[in-house]
Amino acid sequence: MKKGWLLISACSLVGMGPVNALAQASDQAAMPTAGAAQQGGEVGATSEGDIVVTGIRASLASAVSIKRNASAIVDSISAEDIGDFPDANLAESLQRITGVQITRSRGEGSQASIRGLDPAFNQVNMNGRTVPSASSGNRSFDFTILSSDLVNGIDVYKSPTADLTEGGLAGSINVRSLRGQDVRETRFVIDAEGIYEQNADKFGPHVSGLFATRLFDDRVGLVIGGDYSKRKLQVYRYEAFGLEPATENARAPAQFQDYNRDGDNNDSFLINHAANYGVDYGDRTRKTGLVSLSFDVTPTFTIWGEGLYSEFRNDTALALNSFRFTNNSINNSVRNSTIDDNGIVTLLDMDGVDNRNNSRGTNQRDQLQSFAAGGDIKTDTAKIHFEGSYGKSVSKITALSLEVIGRASAAQNLATDPDGPANLTIMRGYDPLNASNFNALGVNGLYNSPTRDTVWEAKVDGTWNVERGFLRSLSSGLYYQNRTRAFTQVVLSVNAEQLAPLAGVPYSAGVEGGSFNAAQFMTAFNYPDMLRNYDGASTFPTQFLNSDLSKLYDKVPLDTLLSRFGTQTDLASTYSVKEKSMAAYVRADFADANERFRGNVGVRYINTVSASSGFSADLDTVSIDLAGSRTIVGRTAPVTVKNDYQYVLPSLNASFSVSDNFLVRFAAARVLSRPSLSNLAPAISINANVRTISGGNPLLKPYTSDQLDLSLEYYLSGGGLISVAGFYKDLKNFVVSSTGTRTINLTTVQGNVTTPTAFTTFQPANGGKSKVKGFEVSYQQPFTFLPSPFDGFGTILNYTYVSADDLPYAEGGPLLPLPGVSKNNYNIVLYYEKGPFSIRGAYNYRDKFVVDPASFFGDGQFTNAFRQLDLTTSLKVTENIQVHAEALNLLGESQVNVNRFGINRGFEDYGRRFTAGVRFQL
Questions:
Q1: For residue 893, what is the enclosing H or E element?
Q2: How far is CA 493 from the centre of its chain?
Q3: In this structure, what DSSP letter does residue 910 have?
Q4: CA–CA separation, 561 vs 557, rounded Å?
Q5: CA-to-CA distance for 681 and 614, rounded, in angstroms?
Q6: 491-523: b or e for each residue (b if 16 or more CB lie within 10 Å)?
Q7: DSSP 3-state of 685
Q8: pLDDT at 631
Q9: Residue 249: predicted pLDDT
Q10: What pLDDT, on the 0 to 100 scale, is given for residue 504?
Q11: Strand partners, 402
Q12: Exposed, middle or buried: residue 789 (CB in 10 Å: 0-12, 13-18, 19+)?
């Protein structure tokens, strides 16, 4: 509804053979000719004969027409669909497409999965170009940085063609913005709304605007757009890090505990490493600007240029009420315990429990820049498309805290409600609201730690009409990409001995290995609605104290800390990966005389060369600073590793029209996805807190898959559709974790005590195989056959089933589930549109799935089934003014994670969100 002014082409993928399919989709996306729009759901015509598509039904009919005329298996969603759904961003919109699931970050859709595979297996493009993403941690794109208000449509390619950029083993997603060459007439729209967050009980603004016109005798097309939003965030959360294997007499430093109280210290158990109850609060701000310009040099030659800038700022703090039962200050302090048949300590009552109540502030700045220029030559017999582009994404994170610790007498009970947060009880007179019970260990964390992802691309595509019998056209092209991802871990660390004299407080060398009393730097938090959507039996505090950096900065400004102590670069975790890829393809499009049987066959050849640079770590120089559980590597040495590989990727797409309304499609292809750029880094991450050593592998090969698709599609009148599709993927070269155990001499900074400590090592390696298979069922129907006023109703129903073989994630280890695979997924959408009024409800369900089959301690992390109900409505007051309202997560669902024993790993309650606004258009 907010995007109802946009003009949607019903044939943005029609034929799809000429020129690069992604480039062609954006080339034909927004403002169709009359002939193009006649293939979709048209509403009315302008005086120039153009079709203006504005209603829900028209846009849905347009998406159906795109699917019907495409020569591959493609599903699309138009800007009208995005506007009509109550979607916060592009990922929220994508989940409405059959076979697409999403993951969420703080209640917002952040990444998309296609047919159950991890988002890292997607190739995400914008107007046919790769979009860098420094914040995602891999090649996948984080959709939170890009505003949906400036997007014209999204196409999801489930089967590839030879001209599509490789990398979409799961599928390819192309985001289409409105471009200068799409413009047919002058348009202007501005939308202003307020966003209300239930948990925060605050409003945030959202304003967007877009201007499109043609100039200089219609030879120049111009688009200018902008978007600004600020979300007032407040997310209640419970966090756990899994069940840590704990041997009673092997703690470091020596903290012997007789967990089962049998009189010896020789037993081993699984203990909940930490129970964190917290609130994530603050602002998330997004600014986006877009410019697109085209110039018709001649009737057959057009040049164009465009630019996109987006900035995402996350200014939040995570206030934690944390209890670490695996870090105790009193030996043999267990007062009571219960141990189940799996060796899990379900009830643990202890003294001297680590009560680590830090408020870690996060200031994150993500910037995305994308610029492109190119041209199109179109004659009666040929089409040539060429372009060059540059994209850069930079993410800088500062995450500092004043590390404080109290020593509590407390009990945690995992058996009260295994699926919910641990039941926590404060014992024996410990007062968690007495600020003098906390001691400060120092200030630590990341400071302006940068990640950069840069992409240079160039391509040229040509298509020649052949029209010789069965062969209709031939296409070929060249593609080049130069991509660099670099990460530098920059930390600020100031210990208590350094900080105390600056803060004007006494330093105590014998308390917690060196600390000062934190009473004057603590702030009280009171959240009576903490985890408001949790309805289980567990209880936990809703009032707690937290360290407050702002109070410390009143005495010791951050600039003083930086000037006095400076920052340090953790070289062991710092890396740069440079990758150059070249590709060439040929493609032939074919059809019989009456075009009942048509399709394309082609092959794509790729050559990739990479150079991964980093620093090898001397593990004999590892130490842990208990002030923040920070791991320090004393010595490193530079290292660079090179790798290269070549692949041939054939593809076939064919369709047969059984009748005018019944279409059968078949596709076969070999596809690949390259490993995460961070996995290619010759760097390691050492975590002395959970005793793990994780490293990269620059010699990893791409994941590959041989896949088959079969689709049956029956098209109903008025833009309706019934479809059934089956898919099969045979995955090879899946990256598994080569694991082992290594004992290193770990030195504790506080006291300079060295203890031989066993670490679990992880390094990615190729070798895993899995078969992914499933089917999709979709039904879309406007109920125009009903009598008025019921003819305004319509529905969209779809269901996806995905099954994947388990695979070994560790060499010689057990078979474990494939991450991201939800067996059952469905959408139920009901809408009503009549005259100036429309309303739509959308219910989405995603089955449980694996986040990490192993995680820190081998017990894994799994996300429970999630369901969300959203509602949107609008009323057109005048021809130019529309009011609208949206409600997200009406059911108040929370995201819940568990381990393989069914014990909770996380509970995220982000509440309901409501928006209301007005849109003005000319």
A1: none
A2: 30
A3: -
A4: 7
A5: 7
A6: bbbbbbebbbebbebebbeeebbbbbbbbbbbe
A7: strand
A8: 77
A9: 74
A10: 94
A11: 443
A12: exposed
For 847-884, the pLDDT digits (tens) are 999 888 878 788 889 999 999 999 989 999 998 899 99
Q: Which of 129, 163, 131 is nearest to 16 (CA)?
A: 163
Beta carbons of 359 and 548 less than 8 angstroms apart: yes
Residue that is written with structure tokens 């049956």 in the block: 712
Strand segments, DSSP code E, in 469-596 are: 471-487, 490-495, 516-517, 522-526, 543-547, 568-569, 575-591
Helix (H) or strand (E) holding 66: helix 56-69
Average pLDDT estimate for 168-184? 89
What pLDDT does 737 receive? 67
pLDDT beyond 60 at 5: no
For residues 135, 138, 141, 146, the Cα torsion angle rounded to the nearest 10 degrees is: 10
Distance CA 671, CA 604 (A): 10
The pair of structure tokens assigned to 620 is 């004999």
Average pLDDT estimate for 549-565: 95
C-alpha pair distances (Å), 747 with each of 98, 251, 252, 374, 571? 53, 13, 10, 58, 19
**Pick from 373, 197, 218, 176: which is nearest to 281 by CA?**
197
Q: What residues have CB less than 8 Å from 745, skipping those under 6 apart?
A: 620, 622, 754, 755, 756, 757
Running DSSP on this structure, what letter comes out for residue 201? Answer: T
Q: Provide the pLDDT for residue 87.
A: 60
**The one-letter amino acid at 621:** T
Vertex 652: Cα angle to 650 and 653 (nearest 5) = 150
CA within 13 Å, CB half, 197: 23
Q: How many residues does the chain have?
A: 922
Closest alpha carbon to 405 in 327, 457, 345 = 327
Residue entry with tokens 């070999």: 670
Instruction: List the domains of the chain with CATH numbers.
Output: 21-184 (2.170.130.10), 223-921 (2.40.170.20)
Cβ proximity of 248 and 258 under 8 Å: yes
Question: Packing angle between helix 558-565 and helix 496-503, nearest 10 degrees?
Answer: 130
Backbone CA torsion sign across 268, 270, 852, 731: positive
Of 159-163, 179-183, 761-765, 779-783, least confident by mean pLDDT is 761-765
Handedness of CA 154, 8, 479, 463 (dihedral sign): positive
Burial of 657-684, coded b for 16+ CB within 10 Å and e otherwise, reads beeeeebebbbbbbbbbbbbbbbbbbbb
Give the separation between CA 271 and CA 414, rounded to whole angstroms: 10
Asked if 288 and 207 touch (Cβ cutoff 8 Å), the reply is: no
User: Taking 60 as the threshold, does the pLDDT of residue 893 lie above it?
Assistant: yes
Which has more pLDDT, 576 or 26? 576
Is pTM beyond 0.90? Reply is no
Q: Which two tokens stand for residue 726?
A: 């089956």
Q: Are 915 and 189 in contact (CB under 8 A)?
A: no
